[in-house]
Amino acid sequence: MKDKIKNFIIPFILMMIFDLGYFYLVTAPNFGGELNPHLGILFISGLFFGPYGCIGAVIANFICDLFRGYSIQLAVLSAIVSFLVSYLAYKLWYTKNPKRFPITKPRLNNIYNMIYLIIMVNECGLLYSTLTANIIEMCYPESMGLNFHIGLQYFTNFVNYAFLFTIIFMLISQLKDFSYTPEISEKTYDEKKYVIIYYIIAISVIINIISDFSYNTYNLNMLFTIVTIILLIIYIKKPIKYLNKIEYVSIPEKIMNYFATVTLIVLVVEITVIFSPLRDGLSSLLNFIATNQQYLIMLLIIDVIILMFFIPALLILKYIEDKIVTPIKSFSTIGTLIKKHEKIESDTLLDIYSEYVDQDDEIGILSRSYTDLINYNNDYIENLKHLESEKQRIETELNIAHNIQLATLPKNIIDNKHIKVEGYCRAAREVGGDFYDFYEIDEDNTMIVIGDASGKGVPVAIVTIITQQSIKLLIKNELNPGKVLTDVNNQICENNTEMMFITLFLAIYNNKTHKLTYANAGHTPPIIKNNENYELLDIDSEIVLGVWEDYEYTNHEIELEEEMILYTDGITDAQNANDELYGEERILHHINTNKNGDIINSLICDINNFSKDMEQFDDMTLLIIKVKK
What is the 8-class DSSP label of residue 19? Predict the structure, then answer.
């Protein structure tokens, strides 16, 4: 309610001052004669103070019309026209095309708004002057034939004062926002209907003006007046659908405000010259200089006018250079200081940007962004250096872990009169999850183990080392692969917070009986050689280690006559460029067709030829057991 009263009172007071006050101050004539500054108040009342401003200004204007001696009939009709034109200014501003520029409160935040404001002022001025001239003719028939001249007086007054007051109010609103905030309507409407009405109003006004200029027809003017008023009543009901909030004063707006301020100064100077003794003095000076040469006087007047606009233009250009060009030139120096993988020497730049960081416009945003960019870049480079040193430290530790893991593998092959055992292991990363082990438990028994832990990296390597050591400790006291796997499985399950698992094949070979006793925990089936032919051993895989606590693994026994090949799935899962896997069939085909004795090197070479240097993502491990008889 407080805001509504404010929006009503301010235009009411302004109208009383500029209408009635001016009338009594200079005894201004009625019917648009001489100056009518109050017409500009009608425009800004709607534009800045909304519907309540329109009502305040119109009521004050109605009172002033009565005091100035206009008839009741003319005062009422003038109030209707004044209200419609004032309200039209409000609706035209807030219902313009939102696709071109955001709709905001009245501000000169871009060139489009300045151009649109000029168009609005002229549209409202034409409507007001045409309709007012017609209703004057209706109420005072003796003015018949003077419509064009009366309308021209009202038009020039309306346009000049509306534009002047709008610029002043827009500048004041920069200091304190007092503009009315319209409510956004949820109603749907047909935009085309309002476009058609707009053009009909425009055509009606143009025809009315032409008829006044060429031939004056009372009935035709009254018809145009009634039709235009009805259409205006319909048009001002157009819903307001958009309103954008302005977060800061943009550079274009600052330039437009500076331009408007300079323009006002020029206008004040011109008015001072026109309405003061300076006018006569200037005329005398021109006559003295030109010695009554009229053409020379005209040229001098033109020069004075050009000079009055040339100086503001230079001031505006200087403002643009200081506020935009100079900061951008300063910012461009960053280009010479940017080097790959190096910190930006920021002290000088930050000093430059610090001059603008407090500005609430695009230059300020750019300055703050550049400052943040420099700081972020330097922090990033510093972090990269830290990460690089950390990476080197990790690589060193991984190399140490790799050497430790290699140290857990057998140093030498077993090659005695009963058996030959040799192995191969290649990790896909510095450390891996594959491992193998073999050693003579006593003069009759040899332990053989191969495993593959899930995952990669140091945690997996730790698990494999712990598993190896556990098997070594247990196998000394228990020549039972199934029992050993059961105990190892329980150990892993007990503290397996990361849910890791291991496939593992554990076997004990007896030299005297040639029996191989084994237990399997989900590992790939081994390949055995019988009668010069290699084939997969049909075994029960059982479950992997680390999944099912207290699971009891079963011992199995076979007589190993010639050879056994153990491998991890990194061998069978080796991949080529066509996403094909090496697979078990290729293993069997290769070792059955390439019997050169060195199975490990031959098989690894064939896998490399198959994959053709494609990066492999799994460890590769082989273990060969050859029985000697």
Answer: I
